[in-house]
Amino acid sequence: MARIVLIEDDIDIRRLVAGALANEGHDVESADRGLSGLELAVKGAADLVIMDLGLPDVDGTELLRMIRAVSQVPVIVITARGTDEVVVATLDAGADDYLVKPFSVAQLEARVRAVLRRKIEDGSAGRLEVGALSIDVPARTATIEGRVLDLSPKEFDLLKLLVERSGEVMSKRELLAEVWREPYGGADHTIDVHLSWLRKKLGESASEPRYIQTVHGVGVKLVDPTR
Question: Is residue 119 domain-shared with residue 131, that is, in the same domain?
Fold first, then answer.
């Protein structure tokens, strides 16, 4: 059972989602305003936050940043805004997953299970290392040659996956499925942008790679440059 905070101003959706999650055995607290939801999310040990972007008192993206400023609790965004620009901005602001309305309860429940499962795995995986690159999974921090990397939540998740699968070529579809939970594909631009940001923070580029190498026509892989 998980403690879930639901922030949604539509009463019908709020009742439907809260009821479905309660039936799954979760302890659900809900709010119809962003700031009251923020209070619920930070006052106790919430395991997951599910929130809408279109809230009446505060922009959802700004609320997400406020949550991220004080907590690394997983966040699933549910919203009618489905453009690529909004999805990318929301993920970059710290969302762990994104679900566009209308959606089925079964799909939301599957996303909840996946996010909670990743939370458990992150808490038990310990430290990952490739070359001078080190990842502290429970703390969600990464260093290279002792220098702390300033990573967004999605950049961290992408780097962690590449390190976990080091030496293995991963396609953009696989990356979208594993990191963004879009198993049927999504915007390649999302992957390209995040890989570009990661390379820059690792002190490399696509033309002069060290850790992240492109396998043209197939995907990318992370390698130990000292080998």
Answer: no
112 with 175, same domain: the answer is no
Q: Are residues 16 and 80 in the same domain?
A: yes
Beta strand pairing status for 48-52 and 3-7? Answer: parallel
Contact 119, 157 (CB under 8 A): no
Count the domains in the chain.
2
Question: Are 47 and 73 in contact, with CB atoms under 8 Å apart?
Answer: yes
**Phi and psi at residue 215, in whole multiples of 5°?**
-110, 100
Same domain? 116 vs 134: no
User: Which mean pLDDT values do the consecutive 10-residue runs of the chain (227 residues) have?
Assistant: 90 94 91 92 82 92 88 88 81 86 88 77 67 87 93 92 88 84 65 93 93 92 88
Q: What gap in Å lies between CA 27 and CA 50, rounded to an integer? A: 13
